[in-house]
């Protein structure tokens, strides 16, 4: 891409119907191909982070939107392109004033892209348990025991649980994947 082209490209924030970000991105990409306008557009970014959820004892990695209802588009900010994006089903409006879409500044773009990159690289574990919660052990020698969560060790993905063994309350340490909420 030459320097004149790079300078004419700007980043815009587009508000979409929440949950329709991927759909809007796909429709926009298809429309750009059909109308041969790919040269007027750069990247289309949906800011997400990776999230580990533990369901039924199994770890799953999901993407969670950092800004639900928003996508960021690199494009030439001419009237034709702005109208095209606004015409995509699911797009509500550009961020800016009522009459004019306002592009993001260089520092805002840099911060956003850095945040997206770092969020994709790190994985956030969702803590499925809280202190005082009743849980059932689903794996290991204490399977089917019911206990109360006493401590959550987030960084190790472990939980200290009090269970009753031979009539005595006993603390045991288990992994998130060995428990399920009641």
Overview of this structure, please?
- Helix content is 24%, strand content 41%.
- With 182 residues, it is α+β, with helices and mostly antiparallel strands.
- It has 2 domains: 123 residues, 2-Layer Sandwich (Alpha-Beta Plaits); 48 residues, SH3 type barrels, CATH 2.30.30.
- A 5-stranded antiparallel beta sheet has the order 11-10-9-8-12, with no helix packed on it. A 4-stranded antiparallel beta sheet has the order 2-5-1-6.
Task: Compile the SSE list and pairings.
Blueprint lengths: L2 H6 E8 L4 H14 L6 E5 L2 E8 L2 E8 L4 E7 L2 H8 L4 E4 L11 H16 L1 E3 L8 E4 L8 E8 L4 E8 L2 E8 L3 E3 L1
Parallel strand pairs: 3-7
Antiparallel strand pairs: 1-5, 1-6, 2-5, 3-4, 8-9, 8-12, 9-10, 10-11
Helix content: 10-25%
CATH class of the largest domain: Alpha Beta
What's the CATH architecture of the largest domain? 2-Layer Sandwich
Straight-line N-to-C gap: 56 Å
Strand content: 35-45%
Separate helix tally = 4
Shape annotation = elongated
Structural class: alpha+beta
What is the structure about, briefly put?
With 182 residues, the chain is of the alpha+beta class. The chain has helices at 3-8, 21-34, 79-86, 106-121, and strands at residues 9-16, 41-45, 48-55, 58-65, 70-76, 91-94, 123-125, 134-137, 146-153, 158-165, 168-175, 179-181.
Please name the defining characteristics of this protein:
Alpha-Beta Plaits; disordered N terminus; 182 residues; 2 domains; SH3 type barrels; 5-stranded antiparallel β-sheet; alpha+beta; 4-stranded antiparallel β-sheet; 4 helices; 24% helix
């Amino acid at each position: 891409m030459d320097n004149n082209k790079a300078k004419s490209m700007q980043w815009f924030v587009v508000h979409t119907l929440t949950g329709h970000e991927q759909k809007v991105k796909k429709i926009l990409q298809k429309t750009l191909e059909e109308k041969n306008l790919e040269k007027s557009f750069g990247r289309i970014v949906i800011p997400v982070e990776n999230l580990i959820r533990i369901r039924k004892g199994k770890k799953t990695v999901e993407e969670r939107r950092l800004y639900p209802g928003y996508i960021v588009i690199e494009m030439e900010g001419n009237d034709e392109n702005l109208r095209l994006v606004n015409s995509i089903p699911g797009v509500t409006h550009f961020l800016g004033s009522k009459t004019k879409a306002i592009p993001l500044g260089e520092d805002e773009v840099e911060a956003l892209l850095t945040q997206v990159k770092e969020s994709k690289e790190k994985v956030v574990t969702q803590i499925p348990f809280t202190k005082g919660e009743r849980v059932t052990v689903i794996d290991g020698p204490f399977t089917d025991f019911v206990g109360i969560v006493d401590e959550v060790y987030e960084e190790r993905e472990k939980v200290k649980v009090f269970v009753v063994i031979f009539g005595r309350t006993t603390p045991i340490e288990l992994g998130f994947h060995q428990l399920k909420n009641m």
